[in-house]
Write a structure and sequence with these properties.
Blueprint lengths: L1 H20 L7 H37 L5 H56 L8 H37 L5 H64 L8 H38 L11 H58 L5 H17 L1 H16 L12 H32 L3 H14 L6 E3 H10 L14 H10 L6 E3 H29 L8 H7 L2 H10 L2 E3 L5 E6 L1 H10 L1
Antiparallel strand pairs: 1-2, 3-4
Helix pairs in contact: 1-2, 1-3, 2-3, 3-4, 3-5, 4-5, 5-6, 5-7, 6-7, 7-9, 7-10, 8-10, 9-10, 10-14, 11-12, 11-14, 14-17, 15-16
């Protein structure tokens, strides 16, 4: 029985010894884990067999103690079995250590592989050369880089754990220490490279951001200043291209002074333009991108500046040309004014001479004919003035500060003077005929003329109806005072005689015709009365109160005595008791 148990245990030990001698080295973590589990099962089985071996050994010892005839053999079997079990235990311990080292190494390697895969995935991003194409894109990349850096910071914990695991495995004397250290060193180097690359990229992105920020600031400054420059340029171009057409030397001088002031300001504008050119050069040195804030470019602004220089040159030429034109116009104004003033003076003097004639009617008629001939000759002088006026119109001269006269006004005045001369001749001939045929005195005719002239305030040789009424009242006509809009039959009847065409005016000729006809009627009626007074006076040129009382009623005699003037003889001496019936009668009938 003892021998059988010994054989059985030795057989099991030999079997397990063979298994322990197997140098299985799994490449996968699962394989290593399976072997560890298998070894754990073996150790459990080993504990059971240790008890069995102990029992067998105790059984043998008992046999030896009982002086079994095979005591020596039994002692040898017990010693051998114990040695074999001890050897198996040692091999089991060594295998367990080896399997655990392998398992931990594979665990470590798997973490290394995972970390390296993560690092490999991040390396392209850290090594990227994309630093953005503008400020917005680089700011977006910086945001991504910040996220990337945050992931590195978070991942550092895994690196720290890996380092701690390495230290722990090395401290435990893992059989793969060299590989463990080598792999951790490789990971550390790669991790350091990734971290450095990330830092370099962050610095490069920050530098790119600063550069694009500078570009953006330059873009914005260029946009603002180019807009201001373009506004100034457009205003300047509008002013410089405004047509240079003025009406006087003062105006062209004002334009020239304004242009000089503009040219003085051009140096400051040139400095601003040069600053824009420098800005554009700095921008081109940093980027070839388009300015997002404006469509203006250095090229467009240079074209504008060159165009401005061309416009300025044209403006200089236009101002000089207009200055020469205004100098010519000024000379033409002065020449026209000289002739117009002289002609106007002659018109006034000639009109005054025509209107204010002196001497007898016959002498006035001869003088008027002479003046009329002079008026006709002066037509040539008017023609010269009209030619000057035509030249002024062609030159677009709209005003003349040297005179208020115009060709139209002077021509109208000459026409009026020529017509006045004709009317004056006609009126004088009419007056001479009336004097010679009707008995109207020259004094009366003169009085008619002077009265008409007095109320002809505008020297138009005609009176409107209101002026006519005032004129007739001054000559002794008594018209009732009527309200506006009321009829005055007596005055309206006179107007109908003087103004049959009802044009609203009465000419001097029409006025004289009416007054001569009235004076003629009065002369005929007055003669009869004078003859009656003369008969009562006994053919004397005066009448006494007694003679009046004999031929008139008391009321009539009293009226005549109160209104007749005392009679004066040819020497101006008053005849005592005599009354001037002739003057009284003429005045009565004139009224």
């Amino acid at each position: 029985m003892f021998n059988a148990d010994v054989d059985e245990e030795e057989s099991w030990i030999n079997e397990k010894h063979s298994m322990m001698s197997n140098e299985d080295s799994p490449d996968t973590l699962s394989g290593a884990q399976a072997l560890v589990k298998k070894h754990d099962a073996f150790e459990a089985d080993l504990v059971e067999h240790q008890e069995r071996v102990r029992g067998v050994c105790q059984e043998g010892t008992a046999l030896v103690a009982a002086h079994n005839y095979q005591a020596d053999t039994i002692v040898g079997s017990i010693s051998k079995l114990e040695d074999m079990l001890q050897a198996l235990l040692l091999m089991a311990d060594a295998r367990k250590i080896s399997l655990n080292d392998r398992f931990k190494f594979l665990q470590f390697s798997r973490e290394v592989d995972s970390i390296q895969a993560w690092i490999k995935d991040k390396e392209p991003q850290a090594a990227s050369q994309d630093y953005g194409k503008d400020l917005a894109s680089v700011q977006s990349l910086i945001g991504k880089q910040d996220t990337f850096d945050a992931s590195l910071v978070a991942f550092q914990a895994r690196i720290d754990v890996l380092v701690a695991t390495r230290d722990e495995l090395v401290a435990q004397g893992n059989s793969r220490n060299e590989s463990i250290v080598a792999r951790e060193t490789e990971v550390a180097a790669r991790w350091g490279g990734l971290f450095s690359a990330s830092q370099r990229r962050k610095e490069a992105l920050n530098a790119s951001q600063m550069m694009f920020q500078e570009v953006d600031d330059l873009f914005l400054e260029f946009a603002q200043k180019s807009s201001q420059f373009n506004s100034w340029f457009e205003n300047a171009e509008e002013d410089l291209t405004d047509p240079v057409r003025v009406n006087s030397l003062d105006e062209i001088e004002a334009l020239r002074m304004a242009h000089t002031a503009f040219m003085d300001s051009l140096a400051a504008a040139r400095e601003k333009f040069d600053h824009l050119v420098a800005l554009g050069g700095r921008i081109k040195g940093l980027t070839a991108g388009r300015n997002p804030y404006t469509w203006f470019t250095i090229e467009t602004l240079e074209d504008s500046w060159q165009n401005l220089m061309d416009v300025i040159q044209d403006r200089d030429e236009d101002l000089e040309q207009e200055l020469r034109r205004q100098e010519d116009n000024e000379a033409l104004r002065k020449l026209f004014a000289k002739h117009a003033i002289e002609f106007s003076g002659w018109l006034a003097a000639t009109r005054s001479a025509l209107v204010e004639g002196t001497g007898t009617l016959e002498a006035q008629l001869e003088a008027t004919k002479g003046k009329y001939t002079e008026v006709l000759r002066k037509k040539a002088a008017l023609k010269a003035i009209e030619d000057l006026g035509a030249r002024m119109e062609e030159a677009l001269i709209l005003d003349n500060k040297y005179t208020e006269h115009s060709t139209v006004g002077l021509a109208q005045q000459w026409d009026q003077l020529e017509q006045l001369g004709m009317r004056m001749q006609h009126n004088l001939e009419q007056q001479i005929q009336a004097k010679n045929t009707t008995g109207v005195s020259e004094e009366q005719l003169k009085d008619f003329n002077e009265t008409f002239r007095y109320f002809d305030k505008d020297n138009s040789d005609k009176l409107d109806h209101q002026e006519l009424k005032s004129c007739l009242r001054s000559l002794g006509y008594r018209f009732p005072v009527v309200e506006e809009g009321e009829h005055d039959p007596e005055f309206e009847a006179i107007v109908q005689q003087m103004d049959p065409n009802n044009d609203g005016y009465v000419s001097l000729s029409e006025f004289l015709s009416f007054m001569i006809s009235r004076a003629t009627e009065n002369v005929e009626s007055a003669t009869e009365v004078i003859n009656a007074f003369k008969a009562a006076a006994g053919d004397n040129p005066y009448v006494t109160a007694e003679q009046l009382s004999r031929v008139l009623t008391p009321e009539q005699a009293d009226y005549c005595i109160r209104h007749m003037q005392p009679f004066r003889d040819s020497k101006g001496v008053v005849v005592r008791g005599g009354f001037d019936y002739r003057t009284f009668t003429q005045g009565l009938f004139m009224s």
